[in-house]
């Protein structure tokens, strides 16, 4: 056996794993408590608007409820994720179920935010042409499609650990999990394509709103909308870009492109940290919910605008 091969086999990740146990406790416990409370309140708040103000705010409310449900699903998976990460060879079915909930909620949020951004851009660019596309039935159909897609996309999770004898949940994935035919569709359709859509729609929406500065009497509200769009895009990138960069680096490790022990340890630490802190996104979304509900209440107290103005306003305050 060559010295280099022996060195790779003896590469230990115990220090990384011990450090991450402490970090997870410090991050996941407050994330769980806050996320559980705030997302439950968000679902209740938008459900109330959905019942009382149907159909004026239906499109935004349905999208927001769908996003909050995905965030709540991720929050509920965190205690099991922490517990199972410390158990050697846990029950395969239970481990797979928790991993499914975690990744379904992550990519469900990604796709929901993507469709929200696209919906808002089209409504800002073509407010009269797309108003009929924003009917509650069509929005419910889109959200239902998202659920079907993310659950169908979770099929590879069932073989995450393959025939690996010693494993822990969210660790020790089988070689097949890191094959190109599994990894690249995940990266392209699960992150790069949504990122491209969100980036394009957000930048175009901002450009359109800035271009209307001299043509509108409500520049203060539109300015706030611009900052909300920019902040939402930044939160999306900060939350999900490091995770998928970590996936790519781990793909290089598992396929033999990176073999140096210290590099593998650093990549493992980076990936686990990025996944840990990306979970905070389920709490950051709540700030968006707060401002949307605030805008709803301000609009209700204001004189009733025309139907076309409602369509434009409803989409401008939607999360991007």
From TrEMBL:
<feature type="transmembrane region" description="Helical">
    <location>
        <begin position="182"/>
        <end position="203"/>
    </location>
</feature>
<dbReference type="GO" id="GO:0005886">
    <property type="term" value="C:plasma membrane"/>
</dbReference>
<dbReference type="GO" id="GO:0004949">
    <property type="term" value="F:cannabinoid receptor activity"/>
</dbReference>
<feature type="domain" description="G-protein coupled receptors family 1 profile">
    <location>
        <begin position="38"/>
        <end position="289"/>
    </location>
</feature>
<protein>
    <recommendedName>
        <fullName>G-protein coupled receptors family 1 profile domain-containing protein</fullName>
    </recommendedName>
</protein>
<keyword id="KW-0297">G-protein coupled receptor</keyword>
<feature type="transmembrane region" description="Helical">
    <location>
        <begin position="269"/>
        <end position="292"/>
    </location>
</feature>
<keyword id="KW-0807">Transducer</keyword>
<feature type="transmembrane region" description="Helical">
    <location>
        <begin position="100"/>
        <end position="118"/>
    </location>
</feature>
<keyword id="KW-1003">Cell membrane</keyword>
<feature type="transmembrane region" description="Helical">
    <location>
        <begin position="58"/>
        <end position="80"/>
    </location>
</feature>
<keyword id="KW-0472">Membrane</keyword>
<dbReference type="InterPro" id="IPR017452">
    <property type="entry name" value="GPCR_Rhodpsn_7TM"/>
</dbReference>
<dbReference type="Pfam" id="PF00001">
    <property type="entry name" value="7tm_1"/>
</dbReference>
<feature type="transmembrane region" description="Helical">
    <location>
        <begin position="224"/>
        <end position="249"/>
    </location>
</feature>
<dbReference type="GO" id="GO:0035025">
    <property type="term" value="P:positive regulation of Rho protein signal transduction"/>
</dbReference>
<dbReference type="GO" id="GO:0007200">
    <property type="term" value="P:phospholipase C-activating G protein-coupled receptor signaling pathway"/>
</dbReference>
<keyword id="KW-0675">Receptor</keyword>
<keyword id="KW-1133">Transmembrane helix</keyword>
<feature type="transmembrane region" description="Helical">
    <location>
        <begin position="25"/>
        <end position="46"/>
    </location>
</feature>
<dbReference type="InterPro" id="IPR000276">
    <property type="entry name" value="GPCR_Rhodpsn"/>
</dbReference>
<comment type="similarity">
    <text>Belongs to the G-protein coupled receptor 1 family.</text>
</comment>
<keyword id="KW-0325">Glycoprotein</keyword>
<feature type="transmembrane region" description="Helical">
    <location>
        <begin position="139"/>
        <end position="162"/>
    </location>
</feature>
<keyword id="KW-0812">Transmembrane</keyword>
């Amino acid at each position: 056996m060559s010295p280099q091969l022996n060195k790779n086999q003896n590469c230990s990740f115990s220090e990384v794993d011990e450090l991450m146990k402490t970090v997870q406790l410090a991050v996941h416990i407050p994330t769980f408590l806050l996320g559980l409370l705030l997302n439950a309140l968000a679902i209740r708040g938008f459900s109330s608007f959905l019942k009382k103000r149907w159909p004026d705010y239906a499109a935004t409310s349905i999208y927001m409820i769908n996003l909050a449900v995905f965030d709540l699903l991720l929050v509920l998976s965190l205690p099991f994720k922490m517990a199972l990460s410390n158990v050697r060879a846990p029950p395969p079915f239970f481990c797979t179920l928790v991993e499914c909930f975690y990744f379904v909620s992550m990519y469900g949020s990604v796709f929901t935010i993507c469709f929200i951004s696209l919906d808002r851009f089209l409504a800002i660019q073509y407010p009269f042409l797309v108003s009929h596309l924003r009917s509650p039935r069509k929005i419910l159909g889109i959200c239902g499609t998202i659920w079907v897609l993310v659950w169908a996309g979770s099929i590879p999770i069932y073989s995450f650990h393959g025939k690996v004898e010693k494993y822990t949940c969210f660790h020790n994935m089988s070689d097949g999990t890191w094959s190109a035919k599994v990894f690249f569709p995940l990266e392209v359709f699960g992150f790069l394509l949504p990122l491209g859509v969100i980036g394009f729609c957000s930048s175009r929406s901002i450009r359109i709103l800035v271009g209307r500065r001299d043509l509108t009497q409500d520049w203060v509200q539109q300015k706030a909308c611009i900052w909300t769009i920019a902040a939402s895009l930044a939160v999306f990138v900060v939350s999900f870009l490091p995770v998928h960069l970590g996936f790519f680096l781990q793909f290089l490790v598992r396929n033999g492109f990176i073999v140096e022990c210290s590099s593998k340890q650093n990549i493992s630490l980076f990936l686990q940290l990025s996944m840990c802190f990306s979970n905070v996104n389920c709490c950051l979304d709540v700030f968006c919910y707060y401002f949307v509900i605030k805008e709803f209440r301000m609009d209700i107290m204001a004189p009733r605008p025309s139907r076309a103005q409602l369509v434009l306003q409803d989409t401008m305050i939607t999360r991007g």
